[in-house]
Amino acid sequence: MSYLSAPGRVVALVAILIGSAAAPARAAEALATFAGGCFWSLEAAFDKLPGVLETTTGYTGGQDDAPTYERVTSGGTGHLEAVRVRYDPEKLTYETLLVTFWHSINPVDRQGQFCDVGPSYTTAIFTHSAEQKRLAEESRTFLEQLKFRRPLATDILDAKRFYPAESEHQDFARQHPQTYARYRRQCGTDLGLAAIWGR
């Protein structure tokens, strides 16, 4: 019996030649987590992107295992207000999420974001893989060197346990559009972003 007449050996040879007998399936969904000041605003920004399956506001990065809005915003828990994004990587790239994140914040403010001041309103990218970390670090370096010409205030950290926020903080911009628009106007968010990003 020749080598090529043995079906099992043919399959093995093909696998060696092309690297695999079958291409690995891509993940149907992926997670990304960002902290960018008020989680209402960051959630609203991500909700506009085609390919986003779900956004959840919450708390992450700290040591408190039972965070609440009051405890987090009063300081001392170590948590940041954050948004977890579940998305379809076939329709939306992590790079697009990064661009949306950067354009939604003031990345040089170490005290918070616009009218929201305090440690829970500082910015960070929480990465879920080595590839996310690489892309996040490259994007930060690009902005530091070519736009801001100084170190940014946004940390890049490994993802930690994420605690969903209370129900009244979920999907706030869509559930309460007038209240959200008033908050954003009083906070000066759009004027601030226009001054930073030229839009």
Report on the structure:
The protein is α+β, with helices and mostly antiparallel strands and 199 residues long. It has helices at 7-18, 39-47, 69-73, 94-102, 130-148, 172-175, 177-187, 189-197; strands at residues 30-36, 52-60, 80-87, 112-113, 116-117, 123-127, 155-158, 162-164. Strands 7-6-1-3-2-8 form a six-stranded mixed beta sheet. It is globular and about 35 Å long. Mean pLDDT is 89; it is low at 1-24. The protein has eight helices and eight strands.
The counted number of beta strands is 8
Helix content: 25-40%
The 3D shape can be described as: globular
What's the mean pLDDT score? 89
Which series of helices and strands comes N to C? HEHEHEHEEEHEEHHH
Task: Let me know the largest β-sheet.
Answer: 6 strands, mixed
Side by side, the strands of the main sheet go: 7-6-1-3-2-8
Instruction: Flag low-confidence runs.
Output: 1-24
Q: In percent, how much strand structure appears in the residues?
A: 15-25%
- SS element count, helices: 8
Query: N-to-C terminal Cα separation, in Å?
Result: 72 Å
Which structural class matches the secondary elements?
alpha+beta
Specify Rg, calculated over alpha carbons.
21 Å
Q: Layout of helices and strands, plus pairs?
A:
Layout: H1 7-18, E1 30-36, H2 39-47, E2 52-60, H3 69-73, E3 80-87, H4 94-102, E4 112-113, E5 116-117, E6 123-127, H5 130-148, E7 155-158, E8 162-164, H6 172-175, H7 177-187, H8 189-197
Parallel strand pairs: 6-7
Antiparallel strand pairs: 1-3, 1-6, 2-3, 2-8, 4-5
Helix pairs in contact: 4-5
